[in-house]
Specification:
Elements: E1 2-6, H1 8-14, H2 17-32, E2 36-37, E3 42-45, E4 52-61, E5 64-73, E6 85-92, E7 99-104, H3 105-124, E8 131-135, H4 139-151, E9 156-160, H5 164-178, E10 183-184, H6 188-192, E11 197-200, E12 219-222, H7 235-240, E13 241-245, H8 248-254, H9 256-263, E14 272-275, H10 276-280, E15 293-297, H11 302-319, E16 323-326
Parallel strand pairs: 1-7, 8-9, 8-11, 9-10, 11-12, 12-15, 13-14, 13-15
Antiparallel strand pairs: 1-16, 2-4, 3-4, 4-5, 5-6, 6-7
Helix pairs in contact: 1-3, 2-3, 2-11, 3-4, 3-11
Length: about 325
């Protein structure tokens, strides 16, 4: 059977942020309606402690598609020629179960993660929010800036990173790509003071955002941590916030930003007020007033990768993009 192979630049050329936000809204709604299968991911810690390897399968029943993402996560790659997230998304066609496509996972992960934060920001941030702080300066800083620009009119953008050179490079990229001035701040506190949009996209294991720094009315997208023993937000930040997640089951197993405060006795499972799909279906109440602090804890879901892969492959087929190879898979194709 023919298999379409799409590299990083091809995926990026076919996947706009606006389109990806729409695809994520559809995927999260499908999940909330029960028309998707989303098991917990399997994560292996590498023996050398340099990174992790994850396998994430998922099935979307409407419209039908299934596949998996196999990805390595090496945070130390930041600042090198290698992305911190590397791997492939395998998309299968649902009629006969044949492999249909192999897509670069770095680009899909970078764009769809920020697009989900864009969905959360649409649902939870104040309509007049526009003072953005981005904590972190890697790939997710770039794509989150894209996503926030897509869903809110930005008045001011500040950034902070543990490596000032990386933060400066991010600011230069923002000016080159968007003509946008990004202020590099000396501390995380200085970056978030007065901000009504905050995106944490670091590889931190310990908190870099304190609850006492967050102004009333702010919305936070907490993205960087996906391990139960690591977090970017301190306990006070979580306690002060109305908390929503992409998938409740995933958060209860993997979200250190929530699990550590729960272990301290500061919150219970009831502190998770709903999933983004619940908000999209009006099954949950997000922001109740202008002074509420809202928090979206992102972990990333395989159905998001599958939905994006299906969208990108449709675009690639229409435009004749990618390398198409016959890898077999039909009876009689081998001697």
């Amino acid at each position: 059977m023919p298999v379409r192979i799409l590299n990083q630049s091809e995926v990026e050329s076919l996947l706009t942020m606006d389109d990806c936000i729409h695809v994520m809204e559809e995927a999260l709604t499908t999940l909330a309606e029960g028309d998707a299968i989303q098991p917990l991911r399997s994560i292996l810690r590498m023996p050398n402690l340099k990174g992790a390897f994850g396998v994430m399968p998922g099935v979307i029943e409407r419209p039908a598609a299934f596949g998996l993402k196999a990805i390595s996560v090496y945070p130390a790659n930041h600042g090198t020629e290698y992305d911190s997230h590397q791997g492939a998304v395998l998309l299968f066609e649902p009629v006969h179960g044949s492999l249909a496509a192999i897509l670069d996972a770095s680009s899909i992960t970078a764009i769809r993660t920020a697009a989900v934060s864009g969905v959360a920001t649409i649902l939870l941030a104040r309509r007049d929010a526009g003072d953005l702080a981005i904590l972190g300066s890697g790939v997710q800083a770039d794509t989150h800036l894209d996503a926030m620009r897509a869903v809110r009119d930005l008045r001011r953008v500040r950034t902070w990173s543990r490596n000032t050179h990386h933060a400066t490079d991010f600011a230069k990229r923002a000016r080159s790509r968007h003509g946008l001035a990004v202020e590099v701040m000396p501390t995380a506190q200085a970056a978030v003071t007065g901000a009504d949009l905050i995106c944490t996209v670091t590889g931190a294991k310990d908190p870099i955002l304190a609850g006492e720094w967050i102004m009333p009315g702010a919305h936070i997208n907490a993205v960087g941590s996906s391990m139960r023993d690591a977090r970017e937000l301190d306990t006070a930040a979580v306690v002060r916030s109305r908390l929503f997640v992409d998938r409740r089951e995933s958060a209860l197993h993997e979200a250190g930003d929530f699990l550590i405060p729960r272990a301290e006795g500061a919150v219970t499972d009831a502190h998770i007020l709903g999933e983004l799909g619940d908000l999209l279906l009006n099954r949950a109440t997000g922001r109740e007033g202008p002074a509420d602090i809202t928090l979206f804890k992102s972990l990333g879901l395989a159905i998001e990768d599958v939905a994006v892969a299906r969208h990108v492959c449709t675009m690639a087929q229409e435009r004749g993009v990618g390398l198409v190879l016959d890898l077999g898979g039909q009876r009689g194709t081998h001697p």
